[in-house]
Amino acid sequence: MKTAEDIMKKEVISVTPETDITQAVEILLNNHINGIPVVDGDGVLKGILCQSDLIFQQKNISLPPILTFLDSIIPLSSSKKLQHEMEKMAAITVAHAMVADPVTVTPDTPVSDIAALMVEKHFHTIPVVQDNKVVGIVGKEDMLKTLINP
To answer: Taking the model in full, what pTM does it have?
Structure first.
């Protein structure tokens, strides 16, 4: 049975939380990758930045529904969600746009489990972590290669 270690890319391109958003976009585009791990100076995984996180910046702000009652305005949803959306849309560094604490796998995770994560959770890029450090990355293309090289 194949595992993450058998199919992962071991030479991982990564960014730090302080990386400028435009630089991160250039890295994604120039390397034709969908996602990039965000690591600290010691290589510890802090998050992941995907193309979809950056596309999020282009969407309109969805104002929360409100109820007006006796000249009072009562929000019907969390203001934290609105604040998070606004921070993500205005991100100038990776830290503001990344997904913190992403789903990860270990080198011994079976390929079938990785496939299930990708299909069920709509993930395109999954970091491979050992001892909190990124040791590889598995993308959709890596999964597709298992179909022609079983």
So the answer is: 0.75
